[in-house]
Structures are given as structure tokens and as C-alpha cells.
Fold Phosphatase.
Amino acid sequence: MTRFTAVERALRTAAPHDFLPVLRQALATHYSVVDVELLMADYALTILQPVTTLPYTRRPVPVHGTRPGHAFAWQQPCTETQGTHTVVHLPVSVRGDRLGILTVTLDPEHLDEAAQQELLDVAQVLGHEIAVGERDTDLYLQARRANRLTLAAEMQWQLLPGRTCVRPEYTIGAQLEPAYAIYGDNFDWSTTAHDLTLTVTNGMGEGIEAALLTNLAINALRNARRAGLSLTDQAYLADQAVYGQHQGAQHLSVLLLRFDLATGATEIVDAGSPRMWRLRDGRAEPVELEAQLPLGMFEDTHYTAEQHHTRPGDRLVFVSDGVYDVASPAGERYSERALARALTSTRLLPASHVPRAVLHELTGHRGPVDAADDAMVVCLDWRGRPLAPGSGETPPA
């Protein structure tokens, strides 16, 4: 049994609340590590909080301007020297979804290239174990909280699939603000061997009512999707579920998209949607869609799908009304021109960074005033799947 296998086995057999002490012991035994710390990213992605005996006994670490923050932001190991020891900050993530940082301290003589790669692999195993272990313990969810979540925000965060997803064909990055008091905005995705389904929701109302409405719609869409129904039938059945519950008194806007991983063929149902932008060849512009009725507005609404094509290299960005409706202290609305400028200026950032960067600019526009609505930004970088040699197929323009 290799030392990596021994540590991996120790993690897999540990109780979820004991991952950190078990990992400390295993790394000390097999890698001569003298200290181990686990930092979890908070909901706003601005600080990294130590997982210790709650309530917290140590101060959080800012993401901006620190070595652990650099490792977290760029998902690369970051090494520094502290006295006679070497400290390595290792990203903890699950399929691109950034959870936090594992920090290990050891003598330099025990850190060669092979050991660093194995420790990086250990951090990834830890990420997967945390993702599974959160079904049985609140420890890691509690460690993410810099403040108390509102009940509506609690419901919304539990509904999300993650904030980043990385596959060879695409990368998704998403963020909601205000992170600790969101209402009804939401996003969801699911992938198969052949396609990606992405849902972006602009919720109606505030507080618990908004969260309940979004929960109903998202679960209705998931139920229809998991039954193998078409995109239009998913919208139809979710519409019926919302209308059946609220009789038209409440409704919500949803944008449903399905991408063919091999060709980039994109099917879109715009049900009073959040807005969609495309960054292609360095130019950002809104994508005009055929707006249909929001979900739940009327009984027996039928939806149709539009056909588009997403090219390798395209960046698609989806924003909710909470972005467009933000006003400066002088009452000036955040314009399409400002958003286009923000999307262009962030074109070199990875998709996981874009939502946070755009929302940060939005905060600067709003000034010190508290947000009147929640805001959502979802970024999709499309790479597509190379055609098989000799297939004879030509991708559409």
C-alpha cells in the first residue's frame, strides 16, 4: 500500500465530522507533516474560514492578497516559507467547484515534486469526501458562514448544484448576491454524455415566498428533466405546477437551455427570462430571444424552443433583473453599456471569476446603499467537443 493510498483510505473510512483530525494523523504518519489546517470559502467568496471547534477560534483569511487566497482563486498550489518550515496551500474542490484550501506545514526535506503532487491529490479526495459528508454533518456548512443566513438564503443555497462546474467541453461559474440574504434568483445545471441542460431563474417577490416559489419551479423542472422530457415539456409542466399552486398570483421568469456537447447546437426556451449576453471575438452583445410568458402566469401555456449555435470560444453570460435594476446614489441605472464594458474587461478571466468580478463592479456602482434586490450572474465558457477525424461533419457557422 502506497502512502497516498493509506491517507485516502483513512479519509474514506473516517466519520464526516472527523475528517480533519484523521487527516492530521495520517499526513503526520505518512508525509511527516507537522500541521494541517482546512479553510472553507464563505458564501460570498471573499474569505476563507478555519474549520475548528465551533464557534470559530481563529480569524478568517481574506481571499484577496493572501497566499491561501491566491491558491483558492487560481486553483493552483501555493508555497511559502515560515521559519524553518515550508507551508503549502492546496485547493480543495470537486469537479471545479471551489470549496476551500488545505494548508499543510512540513520540513522542506520532505517536500519533493512527487510529495507535492500526492498532497494535491489528497486535497481533491478531501473535497469529494466533504461533498458526500455534508449529508451527515453541518460542520463544513457552518464553517462557510461569516454571518447568519436568512431562512430564504438557506433554502436557496441548498437548492444549488454548486458554483462552478468544469468539463472538457465547458466551464460554468455562477454567483448570487447578497450571499447571505438572497431571495428567489437561482441557477441549475445537469449534464449527460451528450448534452448540458442549464436553467437560469429570476425569482419573483422577497423572502420566504420568493424562495418557496423558486423551490417549486426548480424541482418541477428537475422532475420533468429526469423523466426524459423535452425542453419545451419541462417548461410546460413547471408552468402547470406553479399555476396549480398559485393560480396566477405568482410567477417567475426562467431561461432554459440545452447544449449539444458534440456540435454546439443550442435549444433555448425563453419564459420571461433573465437576459443572455454573448462574448464572441472580443465583442459583448445581448442575445435577442423570443420572450414567452413566465412560468405560472396563465393556465395551459405552451412553449416553443428556438434553435441557436454556440461556437467554441464563445462566452455566454446570464444576468438577472437585480443587475439591471441597480441604481447609483444619484439614481442612475446600471446600463447595458456598462454591463458590456464589464463583460469585455473580464474577458481574460476564467469563467469562475467572472460573476464575482461583475458583481463587484455592480457594488461599486450602487455605492454604500444596501441592495434592493438579489442579483445573479452565470458565466458559461464553451469549448465544445472536437469532431472525430474523418467524420466528414462540418460545424455550423
